[in-house]
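queue> pop job 88
queue> type: inverse folding (structure -> sequence)
queue> payload:
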C-alpha cells in the first residue's frame, strides 16, 4: 500500500506528474513508513495539491497543503484544532553533489534511480510550518495570572487587594479642579 507514495525520478513522464489528493492520516502516522518523524496529532487527512516537473537536470516538486492539528492554546491552555497551510518547494537532481558547486541552485542530490518518498516530504513540510506558540483565537483572553481561571469561559476568582500597590496612595488624593 505504501508503494504509491514512492516516486522514481528516472521514470517520470516527460509531462511530469500532478497530485490533488487527501493524504490519509494513518499513512502520515505510520512509523514503519519513511524516515521523517510522524505527525501524531493530525485531526484528519492532509489535502495536498502538488506537481513534479522535469526541467533539464532538475526535478521540481511544488505545491501547497493544508492540515488540521490538535494543539493547546499558548494563552489559555485550551485544546483546539489548529488549521495550518504550507508550501512544498523542493528541487532534486540525480547524482552526487559536485565538489565545487557554484551554480547557486539549491537542490537535493539523489543517487539514481532517484526514489523520493512523498510522505517524508509532506511530513517535513508540516514540521517546518510548526509554530511553538499558537492561540485558539485572536480574541483569546488567556488565563488570570492570579487565580488561573480561563478568562474566555469564566470570571476571575481573585480577590484583589491593591492596598500594597505602589500607586494605591494616589486613590486618596483630592485634586482641586
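queue> result:
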Amino acid at each position: 500500500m505504501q508503494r504509491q507514495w514512492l516516486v522514481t525520478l528516472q521514470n517520470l513522464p516527460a509531462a511530469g506528474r500532478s497530485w490533488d489528493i487527501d493524504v490519509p492520516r494513518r499513512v502520515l502516522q505510520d512509523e514503519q513508513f519513511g524516515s521523517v518523524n510522524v505527525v501524531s496529532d493530525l485531526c484528519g487527512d492532509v489535502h495536498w495539491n502538488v506537481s513534479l516537473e522535469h526541467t533539464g537536470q532538475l526535478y521540481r516538486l511544488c505545491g501547497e497543503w493544508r492540515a488540521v492539528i490538535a494543539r493547546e492554546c499558548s494563552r489559555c491552555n485550551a485544546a483546539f484544532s489548529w488549521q495550518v497551510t504550507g508550501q512544498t518547494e523542493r528541487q532534486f537532481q540525480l547524482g552526487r553533489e559536485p565538489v565545487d558547486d557554484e551554480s547557486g541552485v539549491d537542490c537535493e542530490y539523489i543517487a539514481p534511480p532517484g526514489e523520493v518518498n512523498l510522505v517524508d516530504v509532506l511530513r517535513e513540510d508540516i514540521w517546518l510550518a510548526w509554530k511553538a506558540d499558537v492561540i485558539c483565537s485572536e480574541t483569546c483572553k488567556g488565563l488570570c495570572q492570579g487565580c488561573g481561571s480561563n478568562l474566555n469561559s469564566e470570571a476571575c476568582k481573585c480577590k484583589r487587594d491593591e492596598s500594597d500597590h505602589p500607586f494605591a496612595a494616589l486613590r486618596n488624593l483630592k485634586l482641586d479642579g
